[in-house]
Amino acid sequence: MRSKNLHANFKWSSWLFGRPGKSKVPVIFFYGNLLLWGYPTYFFKILPVLYNAFWEWHIIFALSNVLMWIFFLKASLMDPGFLPQDTEEYHYAVRQAINFNDWKNGKNPLGRLCHTCHLVKPLRSKHCCMTNRCVSYFDHYCPYIYNDVGQRNRAYFLGFLLTMCINCLFGIYLCWNWFQVEGQSLLIGLGCLFLIIIGFVSAVMTGMCLYMAAMNITTNERVNAKRYFYLMDKTGKFYNPFDRGLRLNLLEFVHLIPPLSFDKIRRRQISEI
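== Palmitoyltransferase ==
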């Protein structure tokens, strides 16, 4: 009977907080801070005091929060770019590997195969150990959205970071003006300190994501550049064949133009290196 209760408790805690190695605690922390503390403090403490003098700020703050939630839910709930599993191309590659003539030269024809998803990994994809799926244009796994950041949701993730940073700046400004009217308050003071910390972190992350978008490279590629043959020139130095210039890189990032094909990337490498 005791073992059944322990098993039931484990299943309940796993459903609420996530399985080991893929915790839901960060995303629960985000929800909890906003819904149980941040918004109640704003609506019941700050808004009644400052609305008449700063009504324009409150409207902009509300709109920015709506945008933040839209971006957050899109980045969190949508498919980030999961690749199809158990493909025929994978099984064909495995069957043909025995006939590969360059094994003796150190070349591995199975290097691009994912034996978990049973697929041939396209350029810029990676298998994520958290979601246990291969993701197109894999950037990283983010515990605060409880999802991978990949080709399909990376623009929404950037929007989430940017609007969160803006909301923190608005919140700090409103807290400062509340202090001028009402004086000191431990609750508002702690809230302001929390906004300063989150605002700084989100600003740094926003800057990093904007830089990656401007350079047309993923976080995974930049951190692990030495692992990818297509990010090195003939001398072994870092080379980014996807960089098309700031404007085109940003247009590609938000899906307004298609990415370069593999053939075009190879031609760029041959002509520029």
